[in-house]
Amino acid sequence: MSQSLTERPIVVKIGGSTLGGNDTSLQDLVALHRAGRPIVIVHGGGNVISNWMQRQNLAPNFVNGLRVTDAPSLEIVVAVLGGLVNKELTGLMQQLGGPTIGISGTDGCLLQARVANPELGYVGEIVAVDPAPVNGILSAGFIPMISPIAVDVTPGSDHAGQPLNVNGDTSAGALAHALRAERIIFLTDVAGVMDNGGRVIPRLNAGGASALRDSGVARGGMLPKLAACLDALADGAVPSAHIIDGRQPDALMKCVNGDPIGTRITP
Question: Which of 45, 46, 65, 262 is catalytic?
Fold first, then answer.
């Protein structure tokens, strides 16, 4: 059944570290879709990529939460994110009753990027988003399941037209901004954004989030999440961003229903 695009979608970023145990994220996503809420999912898969890299005797390497990606690593990233993880998640969603179409950011030039830092290798910085493929999937009544692979659009580059690895959080933030989403929700394996004392900060504005990022209080994988929140919220495109513990039962549904959970970031 087709859906109207008059309602702004909810963009949800899910990661492999939050799927399992008491997690109900996929069930919550299906329930939201059945309730008529347009849902857009961006998935990660960093742990699976690292496992496959180690099988090939390639050592995972990260700088500020971003994976350094040389040519052999890129092949694994594309195969794992665009193939294995994307299709497994798509199948699971459909088994739960959620009609889902799995695509990558290269499809329809959804995510367009360039190599921003040669030291990171084939890691893309998103320069443009064309939401038309996602809107088409939504209007047909399906849930888009998107892997964070972008197409290189650098003019004159030998790698132009080829895939680039883009952080899943970064991809979700850029996509939410382009879609002018109702909100963006990051399902993580921590309770939220922490202060210096390890306590969850329930509410932040964009200035506070920037200060946490710049001061060094936020580190590692939280850095791209905060940057993605700020990207989504820029120019008032998205009203709120949420970083919550996706391992907890009903976490996603509680967040959508307005329960105080995790960290809520507003412009």
Answer: 46
The set of long-range contacts for 232-235, using a CB threshold of 8 Å and a minimum separation of 24, is 232/11, 232/172, 232/173, 232/174, 232/176, 232/177, 232/181, 232/184, 233/206, 233/265, 233/266, 233/267, 234/177, 235/177
Q: Which residue has the higher pLDDT, 116 or 81?
A: 81
Q: Is 254 assigned a catalytic role?
A: no
pTM of the model: 0.94
Say how far residue 100 (Cα) sits from the centre of its chain: 16
Catalytic one among 13, 124, 173, 246? 13
Q: Do the beta carbons of residue 58 and residue 29 sit within 8 Å?
A: no
Active site residue 169: yes
Q: Tell me the one-letter amino acid at 104.
A: S
Q: What distances in angstroms separate CA 173 from CA 4, 11, 118, 237, 238, one per listed residue? A: 23, 9, 23, 11, 10
Note if 16 is an active site residue: yes
Task: Catalytic residue, from 15, 16, 65, 124: name it.
Answer: 16
Tell me if residue 46 is catalytic.
yes
Does 221 participate in catalysis according to the annotation? no
Catalytic residue among 23, 152, 169, 231: 169
CB 139 within 8 A of CB 156: no
Give yes or no for residue 60 having a pLDDT over 90.
no
Catalytic pick from 98, 152, 173, 225? 225
- pLDDT tens, 139-159? 999 999 999 999 999 988 889
Tens digits of per-residue pLDDT, 181-204?
999 999 999 999 999 888 999 999
